[in-house]
């Protein structure tokens, strides 16, 4: 879910690809809408929190008939989360050089 744009369409596409689907599944959009309703911005700094949220969701449509298995894993790009303190944002690429 976190490996790209945080739009409904993009997240739904990644979920469908992750579970080996070639077309949309009935449960994908309700799940994506629930996640995006709870997280206005992608929780890139809290992937375990997102995993817990997903695990706590009730079965959606045909996903409840059998256990859904992730067949394709696409890691999310690392990035700096919003800070409570006034610190400059680290660049996404070349980060170690900028911090030196």
A few lines on this structure:
The chain has 100 residues and is mainly alpha-helical. 36% of the residues lie in helices and 0% in strands. It has one domain (8-99).
Describe the structure in your own words.
This protein is mainly α. Helix content is 36%, strand content 0%. It has one domain. It has four helices and no strands. α1 crosses α2. The protein is elongated. The protein starts with 7 loop residues before the first helix and ends with a helix.
As a percent range, the share of strand residues is under 5%
| Strand and helix order | HHHH
Integer tally of domains: 1
Mean pLDDT level: 78
- Spatial gap, N to C terminus: 32 Å
Q: Report the uncertain regions.
A: none
> Structural class from helices and strands?
mainly alpha
Oligomer: single chain
Number of beta-strand segments: 0
Rg measurement, Å: 16 Å
The share of residues in helices is 25-40%
Shape: elongated
List the helices and strands and how they pair.
Blueprint: H1 8-18, H2 28-38, H3 47-55, H4 95-99
Question: What features would you highlight for this structure?
Answer:
100 residues; elongated
